[in-house]
Amino acid sequence: MNLIGGRHNYVFMKPNNVDPARASAMLRAMEDAGRFNCWMADTIRPFLGDEVLEIGAGIGNLTRLLCPARRRYIVTDIDPDYLDHLRSELQAFPNVETATCDLQDSDDFAPFRASVDTVVCLNVLEHIEDDRHGLRNIYESLRPAGRAIVLVPQGAAAFGTIDEVLGHCRRYSRAELQKKMQATGFRMERMLEFNRITYPTWIVNGRVFRRRTLSRFQLQTFDLLVPLWRRIDPFLPWPPTSLIGVGRKI
Predict the structure, then answer these.
(1) pLDDT one-digit tens code per residue, 126-142
(2) In a designed cystine with 196, which of 99, 120, 133, 236 is the match (CB 3.0 to 4.6 A)?
(3) What is the pLDDT of residues 21-57, one digit of tens each?
(4) Coil, strand, or helix at residue 244?
(5) CA distance 94 to 43
(6) Is residue 202 in a domain?
(7) Please, how many CA atoms are within 13 Å of residue 223, restricted to the half-sphere of its CB?
(8) Bridge partners, 194 (sequence order)
C-alpha cells in the first residue's frame, strides 16, 4: 500500500539498500489498515471489469476487497509464501485463481495474453528497472479496449530511505507515468491523484529523519483517521503520495 509506499516482493535495488525483513514487516502491518485499504479499493473499483489480472498482490490486502462480483480474478505474485497465503485466504472465492507472475518476465505473461479486460498493478512498477517492459507485458495481457490501472508513488523529491528499504527504483511525476503508458500503446483515460495527506510525513520520515521503517503505531493512528483524510484530501495544497494512471488498450 502506498501509505507506506510499497506492498510487494519486487526488490531489484542494491542489496545494501534493500531490507526485506523491514519491508515485509510493514506489509504485514498494512493488514490492520482496513480503512486505508477500503479507501484505495473504492478509488479504483469503478474502473474494474469482469475479468481481472492483479499483478503483485502481496498478501491480498486489496484482493479481498476487489475480487467479489468479478467473473474471473487472477491474483499473482512472485513470492511462493505470499501465493500460499493467498490460496488459503481466498479459497472461499470460486472465481479466484492464483499464479506466479513476474512483471519483468514476458514468459510469465504468455498464458494471459489478450485474456482479461482489466489489469491491476498497484505499487509494483516502481520496483523494476525496465518499467516500459513491464507496461508492455500489461498491455499484451489485455483484450482490445481493456483497461490498465497502474498506481505508483509520486514525487522524485520525496525519494528517501524508506523508498530504499522497499526496493523502489523511482518515484514518478504525472508526465513520466503518462508518457510511459502512452509510449506502450495506452490511451490515457484518467490520471488520479491519491493520498495527499501522507506526502509531508513521507518526506519527514524518509528524507529528514532518514528512518528505515514506519511504526505500527503510526500506521494504526493514520488508519483510525482515514474517514477524515478522505474528506479533506482533495483540498490539501501539496502533491499526492500516489498517482493512478488509467489507460485503455488501443
Answers:
(1) 999 999 999 999 999 99
(2) 236
(3) 766 666 666 667 999 999 999 999 999 999 999 999 9
(4) strand
(5) 25
(6) yes
(7) 21
(8) 242
pTM: predicted TM-score of the whole model, two decimal places: 0.91
Q: How far apart are alpha carbons 94 and 159 in whole angstroms?
A: 40
Q: Looking at the domain assignment, is residue 103 inside a domain? A: yes
Q: What domain range includes position 32?
A: 20-249
> Which residues, 6 or more positions from 101, have their beta carbon under 8 angstroms from its beta carbon?
53, 55, 76, 77, 78, 108, 109, 112
Asked if the structure places residue 1 within a domain, the reply is no
Stretches in the chain below the pLDDT threshold 50:
1-2, 4-16
What CATH number should be reported for the domain holding residue 181? 3.40.50.150
User: Residue 149: inside a domain, yes or no?
Assistant: yes
Domain total in the chain: 1
Number of H helices, E strands in the chain: 11, 7
Q: Strand, helix or coil at 240?
A: coil
In this predicted structure, what is the pLDDT of residue 214?
Answer: 81
Q: Provide the edge-to-edge strand list for the sheet that holds 96-100.
A: 96-100, 72-77, 51-55, 116-122, 142-153, 242-249, 186-194
pLDDT score recorded for residue 19: 64
**At CA 157, angle to CA 34 and CA 57, rounded to 5?**
35
